[in-house]
Amino acid sequence: MSVTEAGATIWLTGLPSAGKTTIAYELAGRLRAAGHRVEVLDGDEIREFLSAGLGFSREDRHTNVQRIGFVAELLAANGVKALVPVIAPYADSRDAVRKRHQSEGTAYLEVHVATPVEVCSVRDVKGLYAKQAAGEISGLTGVDDPYEAPESPDLRIESHTQTVQESAAALLALLTERGLA
Ligand SMILES: Nc1ncnc2c1ncn2[C@@H]1O[C@H](COP(=O)(O)OP(=O)(O)OP(=O)(O)O)[C@@H](O)[C@H]1O
Ligand SMILES: [Mg+2]
């Protein structure tokens, strides 16, 4: 007889280029190596499929986060570690996802990848900060669009002061502490 393992949603919120995706995939590798079932719901992929057609208005960002939260909860309720490296700039959107998990009795962890905008804008993995500075785009989270940092996340990762491996290890330690890994 098999027993369904404890699933959980682990949401990594933070600015563009903060390191959400990088840390999520590092953690995913470690969890898979330890035999866990893992799915990464990355913002860019989701926008191509599940949220195709949505833009970056407050309303569309909220809808995007609710859709991702819905899918993550389904996965987590079935024993998957759902890792979600998605900006999710609005506190009320994130709270709604947390409440949905709570009402279903599904574990939910909020991780703030708290890299300062000065560091993110130098990393600028997708060139968005440069485009915004050049006036080619607007509505960039943390620059000319809001980012409401979590007040009391389950974990805050200072990615600018540690390696990717150290960040993933801190997350794994939290999962272990909560009986999820
Ligand atoms: N400690 C660290 N943790 C995570 N990323 C780091 C760290 N140090 C340097 N980096 C680098 O920072 C960049 C982060 O990019 P990444 O795509 O993970 O950001 P993101 O938060 O997913 O951004 P976006 O919201 O645009 O998808 C990568 O190039 C990564 O190698
Ligand atoms: Mg990313």
Indicate the multimeric state: single chain
Write the CATH homologous superfamily.
Answer: P-loop containing nucleotide triphosphate hydrolases
Secondary structural class: alpha/beta
Instruction: Bin the strand percentage.
Output: 5-15%
Distance between the termini: 20 Å
Order of helices and strands: EHEHHEHEHHEH
User: How many extended strands?
Assistant: 5
Mean pLDDT: 96
Number of spatially distinct domains: 1
**Strand order, largest beta sheet:** 2-3-1-4-5
CATH topology: Rossmann fold
Topology (elements, then pairings):
Layout: E1 8-13, H1 20-33, E2 38-40, H2 43-48, H3 58-77, E3 81-85, H4 91-104, E4 108-113, H5 117-123, H6 128-133, E5 155-157, H7 164-177
Parallel strand pairs: 1-3, 1-4, 2-3, 4-5
Helix pairs in contact: 1-7, 3-4
